[in-house]
Write a structure and sequence with these properties.
The complex is a heterodimer. Chain A is of the alpha+beta class. Chain A contains 14 helices and 20 strands. Chain A has three domains: 100 residues, Rossmann fold; 70 residues, ATP-grasp fold, A domain (Dna Ligase, domain 1); 236 residues, ATP-grasp fold, B domain (D-amino Acid Aminotransferase, Chain A, domain 1, 2-Layer Sandwich). The chains are: A alpha+beta, B mainly beta.
């Protein structure tokens, strides 16, 4: 088992990982930018080391400084959290080459999965349903036109190296194709220089269902149930729940099979999430394999009782999974609300100093947060300041718990999305489980 | 900071009839306490608990915690960024532009690039920071005199850590 882990991240996920390390008796090293000098994660860790100025590229994405920090503190492993360097095959490769354990998949996994077209082909070859679309990258307009005709409108154009919703364009008619094609390519270039796109059939009103898996060095895979993440705005998730109201036991078993096959398709190691779209006819389509711990992992932890971060660490240390699929039990229902420092009406960022902070608690109420009273919320980083997670015996009970918890949550000094979450949980369709990815439009202005 | 195994060191001692008579009313005598404290300070442990005849002594070192004052690890022979700000504000700090180990000379047997009192020019090499076996030269940003060498040779440094203080040329 590792002696010391460096956490290459900040905010709530850094705290999360530090706590798991402490419980395992592992020393922790926090890294921080100048802006985060007084941040919670620097104080909870055993050691903390400044790695750069506020700008993420020079600090939390600064590979030389982070690796050097691991070197000078004698860390034997790095946990990358999510975002930042968590999906960088270069970073993982560099760690591997100097004997520093990267807690996550292999650099080979990251390389393959970073290429959406390649991943799609691998999944298709393993019998996993994928959305009808282009096989391979498209880099010129006439091919785009041809493929779109073949697939059938409406189509979605995705930049091959996009992510988090960037580089996506929906095209309803052939006349819209040219503009959308070039816009998507442009965004893909901005992300990392690659200008290829792929085109697939667009499914309207889909539900976003994802499956959490763990895979160890013996290629032993377990899946920990699914999560429904249909409450989104501009492809950014806002509310997640497990189990999904739309997934029957039969569907769940099928999903589990697909997920296991997806793991085999790429030889995946450690924790990962396979994202699917569920259309209105009950058909599943593979979307992405996310090779990292996800923001919404806590809801899976609440219903399974399994600490996913600890499992990541154990797998990285070469330990085999301690359970079989039959040991995994899903109990009760869990929701997560992502509370961000944004105006709930138009999602304008609201940085500043928190003047008052009171978070709810009690049985089945969990708050994962990187801030507290008097914390500064900076514009340099993503706006997530807290995750409010509840667990109840049923979906109805969990909804009631979330409503109480949201009512008790007080944040003054900055604006947050708490009012929007309250609206959602009071919505009759939401309470009936009638969710789809455009659900939020009824509360917020539609965005392109 | 925890010790190597991340666990607390606990010891329990049985009372021995041949031990020195304790000071009236106490279970541990003053000499034992002195030895204990000395041992604790010298060794790399952060907590020590000893129990005897229902009396427990607990020694603790708290270099880090959730307290509002502790921010980052402080190495011996360096200034925290807070201490620096309370220093002579006319001195210009040369700070580490990267994370690594600070060296004052180009090799183990070479003489240091600069000493206190040396006059330096902008661009002059004052020291090296080694990161992952690569040496990075640390240059003076201004003309002046070396007022103080803050970091000892061979000490790990973090981004922004003050290395050398320069008294600017008038």
């Amino acid at each position: 088992m590792f002696q010391k882990i460096l956490i290459a991240n900040r905010g709530e996920i850094a705290l999360r990982v530090i706590r798991a390390c402490k419980e395992l008796g592992i020393s922790t090293v926090a890294v921080y930018s100048k802006a985060d000098t007084n941040a919670l994660h620097t104080r909870l860790a055993d050691e903390a080391i400044c790695i750069g100025p506020a700008d993420a590229m020079q600090s939390y994405r600064n590979i030389p400084n982070i690796i050097s920090a691991a070197d000078v503190t004698g860390a034997d492993a790095i946990h990358p959290g999510y975002g930042f360097l968590s999906e960088s095959s270069d970073f993982a490769e560099m760690c591997e080459s100097i004997g520093l354990h990267f807690i996550g998949p292999t650099s080979g996994n990251l390389k393959t999965l970073g290429d959406k077209a390649k991943t799609r082909a691998a999944m298709k070859a393993h019998g996993i349903p994928v959305i009808p679309g282009s096989e391979g990258e498209i880099t010129d307009e006439s091919s785009a036109k041809e493929i779109a005709e073949l697939i059938g409108y409406p189509v979605m154009i995705k930049a091959c190296s996009g992510g988090g919703g960037r580089g996506l364009r929906i095209v309803h008619k052939p006349s819209e194709l040219k503009k959308a094609f070039h816009a998507s390519r442009h965004e893909g270039v901005a992300v990392n220089g690659s200008n290829g796109v792929y085109i697939e059939h667009y499914i309207s009103s889909p539900r976003h269902i994802e499956v959490q898996i763990l895979a160890d060095h013996n290629a032993h895979t377990v899946f920990l149930g699914e999560r429904e993440c249909s409450i989104q705005r501009r492809y950014q998730k806002l509310i997640e729940e497990t189990p999904s109201p739309a997934v029957t036991d039969k569907l769940r078993s099928k999903l589990g099979q697909f997920a296991t096959r997806a793991v085999e398709a790429v030889g995946y190691l450690n924790a990962g999430t396979i994202e699917f779209l569920l259309d209105q006819d009950g058909k599943f389509y593979f979307m992405e394999l996310n090779p990292r711990i996800q923001v919404e992992h806590p809801i899976t932890e609440m219903v399974t009782g399994i600490d996913i971060v600890k499992e990541q660490i154990k797998i990285a240390a070469g330990l085999p999974l301690q359970y079989q699929q039959k040991d995994i039990e899903i109990r009760g229902h869990s929701f997560e609300c992502r509370i961000t420092a944004e105006c709930p009406e138009r999602f304008i960022p609201s940085p500043g100093q928190i003047q008052q902070w009171h978070q709810p608690g009690g049985l089945g109420v969990r708050v994962d947060s990187g801030v507290e009273n008097n914390s500064m919320v900076f514009p340099h980083y993503d706006s997530l300041i807290a995750k409010l997670i509840v667990h109840g015996a049923s979906r109805k009970e969990a909804i009631a718990k979330m409503q109480c918890a949201l009512d008790e949550f007080v944040v003054k000094g900055i604006k947050t999305t708490i009012p929007l979450h309250k609206q959602v949980f009071q919505d009759p369709d939401f309470q009936k489980g009638l969710l789809f990815t455009k659900f939020l439009d009824r509360f917020t202005p539609t965005s392109s | 900071m925890s010790n190597a195994s991340g666990k607390r060191a606990t010891q329990k001692k049985k009372a021995r009839p041949t031990q020195k008579k304790p000071v009236a009313g106490t279970v541990f005598d003053i000499f034992e306490l002195e030895n204990l404290i000395d041992l604790f300070q010298r060794k790399n442990i952060t907590e020590l608990e000893i129990e005897r005849a229902g009396t427990r002594i607990k020694l603790g070192k708290h270099s880090k915690g959730m307290g509002p004052d502790t921010t980052h690890q402080e190495h011996s022979g360096t200034l925290s960024q807070k201490e620096l700000s309370s220093l002579d504000s006319s001195l210009f700090p040369i700070t580490a532009p990267l994370v690594g180990t600070f060296y004052r000379a180009s090799a183990a047997d070479a003489s240091p690039y600069v000493e206190e009192g040396d006059i330096v020019r902008k661009g002059q090499v004052l020291g090296l920071i080694e990161a992952m076996k690569l040496m990075n030269e640390i240059e003076a940003d201004i003309d002046g005199t070396v007022a103080s060498i803050v970091v000892e040779n061979g000490t790990p440094v973090e981004y922004g850590e003050p290395l050398i203080l320069i008294r600017p040329k008038e």
